[in-house]
Design goal:
Elements (H helix, E strand, L loop, with lengths): L4 H28 L2 H21 L21 H19 L1 H22 L11 H18 L2
């Protein structure tokens, strides 16, 4: 773990940014009062920022011939992204940031454990073991206590 401490810190920082982003996205949704219009505005803004970074040569422009090499199912990420954004926009106010994110993270962990165990999406196989099982049990306890009034 110590060799990855910097990467783990960045991952934790990104997790914190997601909470801030949910608050900002919620304000867009509150103002527009339309989840799909909010998603379009959010993704359009993201696209513009990405194009500005490419134009400023902050990232290398990819070889567009590689687009044909992307597996068809990988393009479904856009559908998943829209579904995630709409769900987060609808859930954040009634659940609150903490409860929404603990359940989102729980879903990510559950699917990650299965994806790692079977090597889905080209991940290296990392079998489910006792430590992961105990961690999963603690996660269930966390979910229980987070949703209690």
């Amino acid at each position: 773990m110590s060799s990855n401490i910097g990467l783990l810190g960045v991952a934790m920082l990104i997790g914190g940014i997601l909470v801030v982003q949910a608050g900002m996205n919620s304000k867009i949704q509150e103002t527009l009062n339309n989840p799909l219009a909010s998603v379009i505005l959010i993704t359009l803004t993201s696209t513009i920022v990405g194009l500005i970074l490419l134009a400023a040569k902050k990232f290398q422009i990819p070889d567009l011939q590689n687009i044909s090499k992307v597996p068809w199912w990988a393009y479904l990420t856009s559908l998943l992204g829209v579904a995630y954004l709409i769900a987060a926009l609808v859930l954040v106010k009634p659940l609150g940031n903490a409860q929404m994110f603990i359940f989102i993270v729980a879903g990510q962990i559950l699917v990650s454990l299965v994806a790692d165990h079977y090597g889905w999406f080209g991940f290296d196989v990392k079998p489910f073991n006792l430590n992961k099982g105990v961690s999963l049990g603690l996660l269930v306890a966390c979910l229980y206590f987070m949703q209690r009034k």
